[in-house]
Amino acid sequence: MIQVAMATSPFLFILLCLFISFSISNAIVPSADTFRYVNEGDFGEFESEYAPTYRPLNPFTFPFQLCFYNTTPNAYYLGLRMGTRRDGSLMRWVWEANRGSPVRENATFSLGSDGNLILAESTGQIVWQTNTANKGVVGFAIESDGNIVLKDSSGNFVWQSFDSPTDTLLVGQSLRINGGPLKLVSRDSITNNVNGAYSFVIEPKRLALYYKNSMRYWSSTFPELNRANVTLVNATLRIAETDYEENNFHTLWCRLENARDFEQPYLSLGTIRYNSSLSYLRLGIDGNLRLYTYRANVRGNAWALLFTLFDRGVRTSTGADDPVDECQLPSRCGKFGLCEESQCIGCPTPNGVFAWSKDCDVKLPSCNASSFKYYELKGVDHFTVKYTSGTKSSLDSCKNKCTKDCKCMGYFYHTDGSKCWTVNELKTLTRTGNSTNLAYIKTPANGTTISGAKGYGTKCDVKEILMP
Ligand SMILES: *[C@@H]1O[C@H](CO)[C@@H](O)[C@H](O)[C@H]1NC(C)=O
Ligand SMILES: *[C@@H]1O[C@H](CO)[C@@H](O)[C@H](O)[C@H]1NC(C)=O
Ligand SMILES: *[C@@H]1O[C@H](CO)[C@@H](O)[C@H](O)[C@H]1NC(C)=O
Ligand SMILES: *[C@@H]1O[C@H](CO)[C@@H](O)[C@H](O)[C@H]1NC(C)=O
Ligand SMILES: *[C@@H]1O[C@H](CO)[C@@H](O)[C@H](O)[C@H]1NC(C)=O
Ligand SMILES: *[C@@H]1O[C@H](CO)[C@@H](O)[C@H](O)[C@H]1NC(C)=O
Ligand SMILES: *[C@@H]1O[C@H](CO)[C@@H](O)[C@H](O)[C@H]1NC(C)=O
């Protein structure tokens, strides 16, 4: 019909287009479905994650509810809380609009008839918005899976909170390679709600964890992706009935899908004996990845921790989803320390390895090559070594690379394979006990010896290497 119209009368066609765009842009949110909440009044009295004060808002779907919450006075975030029952179970924050940009008392959260969802200060200054004005939005909802959505008249999502995760994935939520959210970013600390140092990222061939965006401390290995020469499209948190178990067993997966019709790799995140899609995967403040599940009919203690990527008492790991020893966490030993079997066992210094405490730190040498030297640790690896390939080089050129780079804090070398890693932050070193793994730490050349400190064991050989 359009073709006919075009052929017979271009004018009619233009009119038709105008009519279509007019009717779309003119879709409005019925006034009964618009809202405007003001951040004021009494606080809720139940316990929630990060121990904030909070004000619940009306929109909710069991067990999800929107709230304003603050961990520091007069700095509020609009968050989605999971856990609405007043039974003593902790309520947890699974999505938020304005991390890093808090609003004050009397801020407003509103949906106008134009379909734009806005978080604004009481002065009217917009802090966060969905940018969906005149895009056909007719309504707002919190879906049963925790997805906050703006729908058009056909029920399609014009905007969804699942597309803007912070540190949490709910069941059904995805990281996507093409145009979707690529990563989760950790929260800085309990009280400081800004982006932290860790990220969980989907890449064409793997999932990976990074410290400060560049230092990889974990990645999944899916050899089947290379064998079949396919790349990933998305990673989606899913729950599925297990086919080999009796009734009522369900498996939680982080399923990695690719564009081809090919077996999809996954991370197995645990099995539950009930059917509940009320679970979430969280990149924690400490850079660890955990899966929590909410048992809707358990009173008082509704949450179960089902999966922890970096865990205690882990000896070896071979599979993509096998837990890894906690020593692999960059900040396991704070600013600096030597770690073995999840324990911080020593504080390396140019004068030997001493007992570890959280004061263990490195002395920053000046940039001038004649002002620093290196000391050697044997049988030690950096947290980036295990999941990155290093560069093939001689020990000397590895050292030169670090010496020339002001930001380099030390270098790591595997004599077996001649592999070199230079690092800008030391953080947690893992004791491997393998004498082919060497570490060289920069230290001021004029550094004074620590008097009175007693050497700690003989687990590492420490030897001074003076600059030529
Ligand atoms: C919030 O608004 C109310 C009513 O307009 C006003 O009484 C109150 O002082 C305001 N609070 C702050 C902290 O501005
Ligand atoms: C793998 O796939 C890419 C892109 O589809 C193609 O360019 C490349 O030739 C393939 N490699 C092999 C070994 O089949
Ligand atoms: C993930 O990718 C698969 C394969 O392309 C697709 O069928 C599926 O709809 C995607 N899921 C999401 C949530 O994007
Ligand atoms: C499990 O729950 C989901 C969503 O609530 C539902 O779609 C599915 O049919 C349930 N499966 C079983 C075996 O009850
Ligand atoms: C580096 O230190 C040496 C010896 O202390 C000094 O002679 C030289 O000028 C310094 N170079 C720079 C760039 O500061
Ligand atoms: C030390 O590491 C190398 C490879 O990096 C390995 O071949 C060797 O078996 C290891 N030795 C011990 C004692 O674990
Ligand atoms: C050691 O050198 C640094 C910079 O090269 C200097 O700031 C510091 O004062 C020196 N310390 C001593 C004890 O000489």
Strand content: 35-45%
| Rg (C-alpha, Å) | 27 Å
Q: Which small-molecule ligands are present, each listed once?
A: 2-acetamido-2-deoxy-beta-D-glucopyranose
Number of strands: 36
Shape annotation: globular
The biggest beta sheet is recorded as: 6 strands, antiparallel
Whole-Å distance between the termini? 84 Å
Order of strands, widest sheet: 31-33-32-35-29-36
- Count every helix, treating DSSP H or I runs of 4 or more residues as helices: 4
Provide the low-confidence segments as ranges.
1-8, 15-23, 449-468
Q: What would the average pLDDT be, to the nearest integer?
A: 87
SS-derived structural category: mainly beta
Estimate percent helicity. under 10%
Task: Give a brief outline of the structure.
With 468 residues, the protein is mainly beta.
What this model shows, in words?
The chain is mainly beta and 468 residues long. It contains four helices and 36 strands. The chain has helices at residues 2-8, 10-25, 223-227, 395-404, and strands at 35-38, 53-61, 64-72, 75-82, 92-96, 108-111, 117-120, 126-129, 137-142, 148-152, 157-160, 168-170, 174-176, 183-187, 195-203, 206-211, 215-219, 232-241, 250-258, 266-272, 279-283, 289-294, 303-308, 310-311, 324-325, 336-340, 343-349, 352-354, 372-378, 380-382, 391-392, 410-414, 419-423, 427-431, 437-444, 462-465. The chain is globular. It binds 2-acetamido-2-deoxy-beta-D-glucopyranose (NAG) (7 copies). One 2-acetamido-2-deoxy-beta-D-glucopyranose binds at residues 366, 371, 444, 446, 448. Residues 1-27 form the signal peptide. This is Epidermis-specific secreted glycoprotein EP1-like protein. It comes from Tanacetum coccineum. It holds the Pfam family B_lectin.
